[in-house]
Amino acid sequence: MFDAAFAGFLLSLSLIVAIGSQNAFVLRQGLRGQFVLPLVLTCAASDAILITAGVAGFGALVLAAPWLVTVTKWGGACFLFVYGVMNFRSAYRGGGALEASADHAPSLTKALLTCLLLTWANPHVYLDTVVLLGGLSASYTPAWAFAAGASVGSFVFFISLGFGASLLRPVFEAPTAWRILDALIGVTMWVIALSLILSDTSVG
């Protein structure tokens, strides 16, 4: 159970930490110190809902078609490998510095609506949570422990991102910091892809 939860935790962190519009918005709000708690809870709760839906739905499919586990295993490993390559490319090219915006502070309602839009209207969110995490959960037993670990990983990341932003502002205004982060994400993706390939995914 611990192995499944830890795998979900690590994989969730690896996917969510990738630089994107949602994370950029949370980071900017964290740098401003505005509505941090409501925003991080919204992001984490959204991820938990999507992860749970993915795990529950894919688990039902696996019972009817066990061969889907093997397909997802190799498909997920390939996806993680390509995702790692993309992060290594970003690290090589650089240019990912993120500066705090000087725009006027939005209201809480506007900030939450923006956060929800960046989360639920982003097709990559469904790929990462429902498809990838939901599919890979079949490779771990019990699947609910994998889902719980993945949800905790999301919560830990957004809490750290939102409330730790003020401490990291001088660092993440530099392009070099983003290049290092991209490289670390790439390494993590490849390590998880390798562990997935080497894991026993037999059903029954």
Indicate the mean pLDDT.
78
Number of strands: 0
Oligomer category: single chain
Envelope shape: globular
Indicate the radius of gyration in whole angstroms.
Answer: 17 Å
| Helicity range | over 70%
Distance between the termini: 17 Å
> Uncertain regions: pLDDT < 50 for 5+ in a row?
none
Total helical elements: 8
**Biggest β-sheet strands, sense, barrel:** none
Order of helices and strands, N to C?
HHHHHHHH
What percentage of the residues does DSSP assign to strands (E)? Answer: under 5%
Structural class: mainly alpha
Write a brief structural summary.
By secondary structure, the chain is an all-alpha fold.
Q: Could you explain how this protein is built, in words?
A:
80% of the residues lie in helices and 0% in strands. Helix 1 packs parallel to helix 7, helix 2 packs antiparallel against helix 3 (36-64) and helix 4 (67-93) packs antiparallel against helix 8 (175-198). The model has no long low-confidence stretch (mean pLDDT 78). The protein is globular. The chain has helices spanning 2-16, 21-32, 36-64, 67-93, 108-120, 123-136, 143-172, 175-198.
Topology of this protein?
Layout: H1 2-16, H2 21-32, H3 36-64, H4 67-93, H5 108-120, H6 123-136, H7 143-172, H8 175-198
Helix pairs in contact: 1-7, 1-8, 2-3, 2-7, 3-5, 3-6, 3-7, 4-8
Features:
204 residues; mainly alpha
